[in-house]
Amino acid sequence: MGDVRSAALRIEGKACKTPVLESSLLNKRLGCRLLVKAESLQRTGSFKFRGAYNCISRIPEDRRKGGVVAYSSGNHAQGVAAASQLLGMPALIVMPEDAPAIKIANTLAYGAEIVFYDRLNENREEIGEKLVQQRDATLVRPYDDGMIIAGQGTVGLEMVQQVQEMDTGMDVFLAPCGGGGLISGCALALESESPDTEIYSVEPQGFDDTARSLQAGDRLSNDPSSRSICDALLTPVPGEITFSINARLLKGGLSVSDEMAFEAMRIAFEYLKLVVEPGGAVALAAVLSGQIHTNDKTIGIVLSGGNVDQDVYIKALGEA
């Protein structure tokens, strides 16, 4: 927990303190009090900036000339690019060819270079390691790194503090999960600051490796043939560090379909006036689909990102 508090001080004035929102109409519909941490309003449009800045700002001065290398489908890419730009360091991002256009465009706009790869036939970790060696750069992993996890944990730390200022607590907390950096960091914060809160990860169906791994007690992989619209959460296996935390602190893992994610995007727009990407909406989707007993409870969720291509967003709204 000390690392999360240190990260909060490190990112202060750089990352946004995003609001916790609620809708009385949505509360009535759900039969609970739903508190929503709007990380879609974070710098770069997702929580990823927190971990990226916390990690990159700690690189020693004598290691900064070579810059950083990262691999990401888009949100970590933007966080790394923006943090590197602020710190005056070059950034090279390994991105899948099918990454959303808005994520590619924003990564370039923050001054990073991009190397594309085929996510079905190439290994991004191998590509990244080669580039690190070629450039004498520092690798900034998307989730399985202590400083990344601590930075993402500031979402949970902030939310607990904001909820306490609202004179309430959280019975249940849910957040999206890909490699597990966000949920594990938040779990560390809640373990210290809100120990009675039940914590759940939420993943896309077909990419529920954390949920299945929690049940099995060991890290399990996803089927390589699985597909989902939730591009931000499509990791092959839970991280080693993140899973060790999640196995200890999470109550369980949930999963939602693409259709559920689309519905949650529409509900976020209708009730909260927020633009949310599919992967960023999965925690809300889990609540809407009845996977959590909501009656008279206070439930905290994270809407983790809002970087969605226009055509995907129009499709989500059109499926109402």
CATH top-level class of the largest domain:
Alpha Beta
Mean pLDDT: 96
How much strand content do the residues show? 15-25%
Strand order, largest beta sheet: 1-2-10-7-8-9
Kindly state the percentage of residues in helix: 40-55%
Number of domains: 2
Low-confidence runs: none
Overall geometric form? globular
Sheet/helix structural class: alpha/beta
State the CATH architecture of the largest domain.
3-Layer(aba) Sandwich
**Rg computed from alpha carbons, rounded to a whole number of angstroms:** 18 Å
Distance between the termini: 41 Å
The count of β-strands is 10
* SSE succession: HEHEHEHEHEHEHEHEHHEHHEH
Could you tell me the CATH topology label of the largest domain: Rossmann fold
How many H/I helices? 13
The main sheet comes to: 6 strands, mixed
Description:
The protein is an alpha/beta fold and 320 residues long. It has two domains: 2-45 and 146-318, 3-Layer(aba) Sandwich (Rossmann fold); 49-139, 3-Layer(aba) Sandwich (Rossmann fold). Helix content is 44%, strand content 15%. It is built from 13 helices and ten strands. It has helices at 2-11, 24-30, 48-56, 75-87, 101-109, 124-135, 146-165, 181-193, 209-216, 240-249, 258-272, 282-288, 310-318; strands spanning 20-21, 33-38, 68-71, 91-96, 113-117, 138-139, 172-176, 198-204, 252-256, 298-303. The strands form two sheets. Strands 1-2-10-7-8-9 form a six-stranded mixed beta sheet, sandwiched between helices. α4 (75-87) links the parallel β3 (68-71) and β4. α7 crosses α8. It is globular. The mean pLDDT is 96.
